[in-house]
Every structure is written in structure tokens, then in C-alpha cells.
Design goal:
The chain is of the alpha/beta class and 339 residues long. It contains 12 helices and 16 strands. Strands 3, 5, 6, 7, 8, 15 and 16 form a 7-stranded mixed β-sheet that branches. Helix 5 crosses helix 11. The longest helix is centred in the middle third of the chain and has 12 residues.
């Protein structure tokens, strides 16, 4: 089967197809999105467990084989899957929050220990599979992972809608979260680096302030960046400057919600967290069931977040493009060539 292999570099190659073990289903991958985590692994911001490895976990495909009778009952169904294996027995799993399972966080699809989905075939534990309803297109289904995270994050807003909330960062996660918060009835202000986002957000009636505008009198006077003016602030930029802005903008005893794992960038002053008794929440995933249900209801138009569609054979170029600042989602067609 054809795969995109990462071994320091990305190369398209041929590998023997995987076999579904007991409890696993073999999925023929149709489409796979390049995720933030894939980029972090390629760019060395996260350790790759085993090399060479096959990246990718934001896929949609069809089950073509099963390692046992229960798995075989999935044959012919269109699916997505959780990246992490889950133990099923810990408090998080028993509470229905399998993405928080502490036991198997290390064994995640596409990080070497389990092969990922930038391949024609991938074997996935049946317990990780979720069936995609017919009303959801492949293009939408590959957004289920970041959408699940955005839904969890949006539930952390303090108070009932409508609330004034601030999203810092206008990459994939910042924009997706913004659409979800807006659909929930909140009044969202976005602070980001890409003036090109203005039109995309304006169509939905959402205000955008660019870094370039931040010092302009209008930005000050319309209150977007006024001190301590938001009960809930979302940091999605992954920059120390974004974290600092968040701490300035959030009200005393307000909530700062972090969706970026790079917010650990050093060098910012944490004192406002203590002085103003800010609650800090980190969000690292969400329910794929909730995301699929959300997509079924067509609450938001997710497709404007697709930057490009490419083929697996262009995998290395696709990663280069995805790594460019400001690029939204890149989708790789795997089964059938995209022209
Ligand atoms: Zn567990």
C-alpha cells in the first residue's frame, strides 16, 4: 500500500498492508487532514516515539476488514476514529471522557507506536471507531477532532449566552472555536495576525482586530482590547504575547482557556493570574460523538477553513504548505486522486 513515511523527511513509499488484529478494524482511508500535532512531530516540537513512522489521525474512511467477528460487523461503514487508545476502566473513561484517559495517552495513532492514517490502509481499535452519518461529507468529517476540542472549550464560557468573549489567535483552532462560540450566541471578538481573516469572519458578523490594528485608536476606542473587559478569554495563538494579552483582557476572577500546547513558551509574567484570581483551564480534546452530532445539525459552515486539497503523492509539499504561517486546513486525498 502507498504511505507517507516520516523518517526525518517525508517520503511517499510502499509498505505491506497492515492486518487487523482481534479487536481491530482495517480502514481504507479516503481523506486525511494534516493536524497541528502532525506538524509538531515533523518540526520537532513533539518527540516521535518510533522512526520511521506514519503520521495522521484526522481521517475518514471505510472499514474493509475486521480482525474478529465483532470488528467484521463494521465492514462497509464510513468511520472516523479517536487518536488515543483508551483503557475503558479509569475514571475518565467511565465518565465518558475517553480523550482524557490517562492510561494510554502515550499510545496514539500516528505517533509511531500505532501507525497513522496517511496511508491507504490503517488498522484501528474498534473501540476507537465512530460511524459518520450520511449527512456529513468527508470534507466535514475530517474536522471532527478539532471541532470536538472547540466544543469542549466553548462549554467553558462563564455565564449563559450571550457573553462577550475574546479569542486570541486566528489559525485553524482559533477560527473554528470562533465559529462555534458565535453559533452558541456569544459576541466574539477575534485578535489575530492575518488581516485576510477579516472577510471570512465579517461574513458571519464577527469582529476581527489584527495585530497591525492593535495600536490604532479605533481598536482602543471600540473596546476590543480594553483591559479586563472579558469574562472568558481563549488563547489559541501559542505565543507568549497572546498569553500576556489574554491576562490583560480577562476580568478579575474571569476565565482563561488555553487551547494551544505551545502556551508554555517562556518569558511571560504570571502574576496577574494570582493578583486577579484568574481561573486557567487547559483543553486537550473532546467527544467525537458530540462533534459528529454538531456536524449533523449544520450549525456552522466549516468548509471555508479548507485551504487546499492535495494528493498523498504530494504529501511532502502539503506539509510544507501547512507549515506556512496563516495556512488553514490542508486535506490529503488518499483513496482516489484529487484533480
Ligand atoms: Zn481510561
Amino acid at each position: 500500500m502507498r504511505v507517507l513515511v516520516f523518517d526525518g523527511n517525508l517520503n511517499v513509499g510502499q509498505l505491506p498492508p497492515p492486518r487487523a488484529e482481534a479487536g481491530e478494524a482495517l480502514v481504507k482511508v479516503a481523506l486525511c487532514a494534516i493536524s497541528r500535532r502532525d506538524l509538531d512531530l515533523v518540526q520537532g516540537r513533539r518527540p516521535v516515539q518510533v522512526r520511521p513512522t506514519i503520521l495522521g489521525h484526522q481521517f475518514v474512511g471505510e472499514v474493509v476488514d475486521g480482525g474478529d467477528a465483532a470488528a467484521a460487523s463494521w465492514i462497509g461503514r464510513r468511520v472516523i476514529a479517536y487518536a488515543h487508545r483508551a483503557c475503558g476502566g479509569c475514571p475518565a473513561c467511565r465518565g465518558g471522557r475517553r480523550w482524557e484517559c490517562a492510561v494510554h495517552m502515550e499510545r496514539d495513532l500516528g505517533n509511531g507506536l500505532i501507525d497513522g492514517s496517511l496511508a491507504e490502509l490503517v488498522s484501528v481499535p474498534v473501540s476507537s471507531l465512530r460511524e459518520v452519518p450520511d449527512s456529513i461529507d468527508d470534507d466535514e468529517a475530517v474536522f471532527a477532532h478539532p471541532l470536538a476540542t472547540a466544543i469542549t472549550a466553548a462549554q467553558r464560557v462563564v455565564g449563559e449566552a450571550p457573553q462577550r468573549v475574546l479569542v486570541i489567535g486566528d489559525g485553524n483552532m482559533g477560527l473554528l472555536l470562533t465559529l462555534v462560540l458565535h453559533a452558541a450566541g456569544h459576541t466574539v471578538s477575534v485578535f489575530g495576525r492575518h488581516p485576510s481573516r477579516r472577510e471570512l469572519l465579517w461574513r458571519s458578523g464577527i469582529s476581527f482586530t489584527g495585530v497591525q490594528d492593535a495600536e490604532a485608536p479605533e481598536a482602543r476606542s471600540d473596546g476590543v482590547l480594553n483591559r479586563e473587559s472579558y469574562g472568558s478569554v481563549f488563547e489559541c495563538s501559542g505565543r507568549a504575547s497572546g498569553f500576556e494579552l489574554a491576562l490583560r483582557a480577562v476580568r478579575p476572577r474571569g476565565r482563561l482557556i488555553l487551547l494551544s500546547d505551545q502556551a508554555a513558551e517562556a518569558g511571560f509574567d504570571m502574576r496577574p493570574v494570582v493578583d486577579n484570581e484568574i481561573q486557567v483551564h487547559g483543553i486537550n480534546g473532546g467527544s467525537l460523538d458530540a462533534a459528529l452530532e454538531y456536524l449533523t445539525r449544520k450549525r456552522i459552515d466549516i468548509l471555508p477553513l479548507v485551504a487546499a486539497r492535495m494528493n498523498l503523492s504530494d504529501g511532502a509539499a502539503a506539509f510544507q504548505q501547512a507549515a506556512r504561517r496563516g495556512t488553514l486546513k490542508i486535506l490529503l486525498h488518499i483513496g482516489r486522486e484529487f484533480r
